[in-house]
Write a structure and sequence with these properties.
This protein has 423 residues and is mainly beta. The chain contains five helices and 28 strands. One of its GO terms (cellular component) is nucleus.
Length: 423
């Protein structure tokens, strides 16, 4: 009898989790239908944290693979397959948020290094311990964040803290994008020379790639799947190229959605269940991460201007995009509806991206006209800071640490600047 009661309680919990998950993914009608069919009270659903079902499934899969229930969320090293979701995420569904803007903390910028030509891109590792920058001079510089912090506080002994711990030379054309493997000490680069190159940064003497993918087009953007076994490449070809990392086999979606424009950026969501492409024709397309079917085209998201970047929120419910129409926009994934617009930063000439800070409370992007970093309150869309970049040329790129209040900028004056919050 006790087993029957326990099973009934477990079934009610599972039904409540399913309803909460559907609501969280903006499938309100489906959630209501399941709740009615299973007689699940809404009061039981409201108390469930966002993406709780995803976290439980991830833990179960990790345990099934023999890695232990906690391994998927291990923050040591490079972490696991799926990062923790839903904790402390901003609720963008709140409507009336006027007058509630947060103050952006003061940040200190330090000129860390230079390339020999324009610094075109930057990327943090998922644990925030490293970042890398790519340049038009075809080189990649690899930095250790802890050593940068030592130089900023004057804590280096005998000048031993050198932030640039490696420089990679193996491309013949400018670097377009970079990404870190989610588990292994591997950095990949995308270049105008039509290649994706793999660098092992655990080997102190390695300066060349140990593996190379030869694509058929200029590779504009790369992104690892959260499991690390696949990577996406956005190229001059209008359909994203999906590569198996172990075999280098390339797959293309059969559902191109009549796309005919090169792709500026590709990015996976936190769980890999979705990915997004931002194209030169101003469109965004959201794709199913398993079937590679386009599930939500947003045509003309930035008018006729290029869409230069797109990134999912941690809970996968929203998408932040940036374009050469000088706008940053937040979209609801489930409906494709424009939710918020962040105005006041000019970007018409150079490819740049808009990013969240580590808590998703703020949005950051570059203003190429005024040579500044512009910061908005993510919830109110109010501009809360304009930070002089300190560069003599327009900032071309910025990326924010996923784990702490720190970010990096780089641009036309070849310089790389690391910014961190000051007390």
């Amino acid at each position: 009898m006790d087993e029957t009661v326990q099973e009934a309680k477990l079934l009610r919990q599972v039904n409540a989790l399913i309803v909460a998950h559907l609501r969280g993914q903006s499938h309100g009608q489906a959630a209501a239908a399941v709740a009615a069919a299973t007689m699940t009270p809404i009061s039981a659903v409201d108390s469930i944290p966002a993406n709780h079902l995803l976290r439980l499934v991830a833990k179960g899969l990790a345990a099934e693979r023999g890695g232990g229930a906690a391994s998927a969320f291990d923050s040591a090293g490079f972490g696991g397959v799926v990062p923790p979701l839903g904790s402390g995420t901003v609720d963008f569904s709140v409507q009336d948020v006027r007058g509630l803007s947060k103050q952006f903390p003061k940040h200190e910028a330090r000129h860390v290094s230079d390339h020999k030509n324009i610094a075109r891109c930057a990327k943090f590792s998922s644990d925030g311990k490293y970042f890398a920058t790519g340049s038009a001079d075809t080189s990649i510089k690899f930095f250790e964040v802890a050593k940068i912090k030592q130089t900023m506080v004057g804590d280096s002994k005998d000048g031993s803290a050198r932030p640039v711990i490696r420089t990679f030379y193996d491309h013949t054309q400018p670097i377009n994008d970079l990404d870190f493997h989610p588990e292994s000490p591997i950095l990949i680069s995308a270049s105008k020379d039509n290649t994706i190159k793999f660098f092992d940064f655990s080997k102190t003497n390695a300066r060349k790639a140990f593996r190379v993918i030869q694509d058929t087009h200029n590779v504009r953007s790369v992104c690892f799947h959260p499991c690390g076994d696949y990577l996406l490449a956005g190229t001059d070809h209008p359909v994203a190229h999906l590569y198996d990392v172990n075999t280098f086999m390339c797959f293309l979606s059969a559902n191109s959605q009549d796309s005919s424009s090169p792709i500026n950026q590709v990015r996976y969501s936190s769980t890999g269940s979705l990915y997004v492409t931002a194209s030169k024709d101003g469109s965004l397309r959201i794709w199913d991460g398993v079937s590679a079917e386009c599930v939500r085209p947003i045509i003309g998201a930035h008018g006729s201007a290029e869409a230069t970047s797109a990134v999912f929120t941690k809970d996968e419910r929203y998408l932040l995009s940036c374009g050469k129409d000088s706008s940053v926009k937040l979209w609801e994934v489930g409906s494709g509806r424009l939710v918020k617009q962040y105005a006041g930063a000019v970007r018409r000439q150079f490819r740049c991206q808009a990013v969240f800070n580590e808590t998703e409370e703020f949005v950051l992007s570059a203003d190429e006209q005024n040579n500044e970093v512009v910061v908005w309150d993510a919830l109110t869309a109010e501009k809360v800071a304009r930070l002089p970049s300190g560069s003599t040329g327009a900032p071309r790129w910025l990326d924010h640490s996923p784990v702490e209040p720190a970010f990096v900028t780089c641009g036309n004056d070849r310089s790389i600047r690391f910014w961190k919050q000051t007390m």
